[in-house]
Amino acid sequence: MMNKTVKIILIVAACMIPAGAIIAGIGIASGGRAGWNLGFSENGTSVNAGHVEETVELDDFENMELEISTMDVTIKRGDSYSVSYRTRKGDEPVIENDGLTLKIRQPNKIFVMFDFGGFGVDDGYTITVPEEAVPIGIDASISTGDLTVDRVNLSGRIKTSSGDIMISDTEGEMLEIESSTGDINGDKIKVGALSIGSSTGDINILRLFAQDFTSHTSTGDLNINNSELGKASIDTSTGDIELSLNGSPDDYSYIVDTSTGDIHVNGEHTEKHYEKENGSKESISIHTSTGDVDVTVK
Which of 275, 226, 276 is nearest to 247 (CA)? Predict the structure, then answer.
């Protein structure tokens, strides 16, 4: 007699087969493709069957519009204007450049894939911009991929859903950065105005130089260190806030409120509310529900 455990396993397996067929059918009917993604190693280099790698040289452009779903995106300084990508065959990015605006869109396709993983190389797009380029206007929307910006001057808007954002060594007039669940990290950012929004991710920025800084977060810590700010307005629900700024304590006027947490401002300790008017046009305004606040200007 077949024991009860074996019967249960067979029943579950029998149910999964038609369920898998239905899902695959839906994917194919929606424009997806069924495929095998089996990786192997060749001369020490990871290779994936069914993938394509290519570099496309571009004419100059002043703006970029990115609409990306799952790919990681890197924007970095290079010798020329170009786009390099590695992706599944048939899922190459749609690239348009009219000499003013570069547009890159990830094809909106469902890919039904049996993946034996562990051997592949990460897919992604890399955009290079030469050093002499003027600050590039950017409007980027990325769902689950990470975005990295390295030594490229940008002004504009960057938004991700669950991917992390890393920006280093950039200058521009204005940056608006928003992430739902990913972390936002930065180093050596010099802009006229920086606005950052996050739902659950942490924000960590080193060497930020901004005349106008605003931050709106729900759950996550905010750390700004070794930086110079003009006006700073910070609003968060749950998370610790740390500001370490260059200058003199008298350079700023302060208003700090927290419902639950300690407040430290330039060595002074209090709870719930701290306010000091120094007659300065520069100001730091912080409001948080639950979290500690530590502000140091020196």
Answer: 226
